[in-house]
Amino acid sequence: MFRFKQFTIQQDRTAMKVCTDACVLGASADVADCGVPGTADRVSRILDIGTGTGLLALMAAQRNLTAQVDAIEVDDAAFVQAKENVAASPFAGRVRVVHRRVQDFYCDIRYDRIMTNPPFYTNHLRSPDAAVSRALHTDELPFSELVEAVARLMQPDGQWWVLLPPYEAGKLAELAKKVGLRPFKRLSMRHHAQKAVFRVITGFAFEKSCIPDETLDIYEFDEETRSGGTYTVEFRALLRDFYLIF
């Protein structure tokens, strides 16, 4: 169980548990509704692809007080647990959990924002747990099919926010370019200033060009212990609406 300020994530039946990098994605993706009804910058429909526990969908619902959020999940147990987490939250009326592959997901509307924390392993040693393998490996959701689904489901002026390791983020950007999606923002995550980047959050949009990278350190570097110490001011500010410890 992982308790946040406004909701709780039960995760005993899901392969992918709550992790820091996913929380950073949920807190930093541009999903808040800052627009005026009827204008182009209104964020009213959000899609979470591969919702798992429902974490990103619930974070989006907390940050955007009016948007309808759809959360897709293919795994049976994760789908049930996501539905239960949503039902127990204050946002149950605005979050819909759908049991389906995104490749087979069709609807009459397009989304203003899409969020994805996708599987990224290809040839790595597999877990004996089928659900863990499904969550970590790209067999059932290859990057090529993911970008095609996003291009089909996203508004022309929409944004897609995705979390991946650095190498895989680069490969995804190459494929996304083929369907007209280009990065316009990158947030690189490090454990602290003396560590290498371990995750990259990329914002994609149609025909936008990339701006310089931003970097988020999770911990202050402690010179005495030569390791991470306290949380950085930037990390605290980003997660203060969610983490109970801030």
From TrEMBL:
Picking any one GO biological process from the record gives:
methylation
Record Pfam families: MTS (PF05175)
**Domain (Methyltransferase small): residue spans on this chain:** 44-130
Report which reactions are catalysed by this protein. adenosine(37) in tRNA1(Val) + S-adenosyl-L-methionine = N(6)-methyladenosine(37) in tRNA1(Val) + S-adenosyl-L-homocysteine + H(+)
Name the enzyme's class: transferase
Coiled-coil stretches noted in the UniProt entry, renumbered to this chain: none
Compartments, record wording: Cytoplasm
Q: Which GO terms describe its molecular function?
A: methyltransferase activity
Keywords, A to Z, come to:
Cytoplasm, Methyltransferase, S-adenosyl-L-methionine, Transferase, tRNA processing
Q: What is its EC number?
A: 2.1.1.223
What does this protein do, in the record's words? Specifically methylates the adenine in position 37 of tRNA(1)(Val) (anticodon cmo5UAC).
The UniProt family comment states: Belongs to the methyltransferase superfamily. tRNA (adenine-N(6)-)-methyltransferase family.
What name has this protein been given in UniProt? tRNA1(Val) (adenine(37)-N6)-methyltransferase
UniProt source species? Spirosoma flavum
